[in-house]
From TrEMBL:
GO molecular function, one term: transcription cis-regulatory region binding
Domain HTH tetR-type: 14-73
Any coiled-coil regions, as ranges: none
Swiss-Prot/TrEMBL keywords: DNA-binding, Transcription, Transcription regulation
Annotated DNA-binding residue span(s): 36-55
Protein name: TetR family transcriptional regulator
């Protein structure tokens, strides 16, 4: 009987934690980085003490949110991996698709990675090591992709720039699609065929 109760308790704790993290993203997107635990708790439908049970402080919540966001973005990119592409640049092309695809998933990825969302959170000292670890992880994954570091740099930063422009409403889906196609071509070794 205890095992069933423990299993239910674990599932409830996981659901509560997920609800808090999802609510925190929405509150930050709506109100900016100066959110309070009370605002997040209200949005998650839990008490402030319930939130504090899972995340002892605002900083702990923010660190967990940043870690969760990084993992969710990695999962999104993995979802765009095309296993039939057995040539260099596979992960970089998935990265481009994740940020520049014309889908709700891509729009969510752009929200999760947008500077307006995270700008104020970077000032929290505990966030810096999490950001550095994530950047190192992406550098390592993309370096294993089998294409030149210069090509990776250009394509990666261009995809991020297009995603940011989309967040600010400066790019429509047609221009994002055109840019995505060009970047996917650049993310493959060989000659750039598309005329500019």
């Amino acid at each position: 009987m205890d095992r069933v109760a423990d299993g239910r308790q674990t599932r409830n704790a996981e659901r509560t934690r997920r609800a808090v993290l999802d609510a925190a993203v929405q509150v930050i997107l709506d109100k900016g980085a100066a959110v309070t635990l009370a605002q997040v708790a209200a949005a998650a439908g839990v008490s402030k003490s319930g939130l504090i049970h899972h995340f002892g402080s605002r900083d702990q919540l923010v660190v967990a949110l940043v870690e969760d966001t990084h993992e969710r973005f990695r999962e999104t990119v993995r979802g765009y991996l095309d296993l039939s592409e057995n040539y260099p640049g596979k992960m970089l092309r998935a990265y481009v698709r994740a940020l520049c695809a014309g889908s709700a998933e891509a729009a969510t990825a752009r929200d999760f990675t947008s500077a307006p969302m995270w700008g104020g959170l970077y000032t929290i000292p505990a966030v810096a090591p999490v950001m550095e670890e994530n950047a190192a992880w992406w550098d390592e994954q993309l370096a294993l992709d089998g294409i030149s570091p210069e090509r990776i740099l250009i394509v990666r930063r261009a995809a991020e720039g297009i995603a940011m422009a989309a967040v600010y409403g400066e790019q429509d889906e047609s221009s994002i699609s055109t840019a995505r196609d060009l970047l996917l071509e650049l993310a493959s070794e060989g000659t750039f065929r598309t005329p500019l």
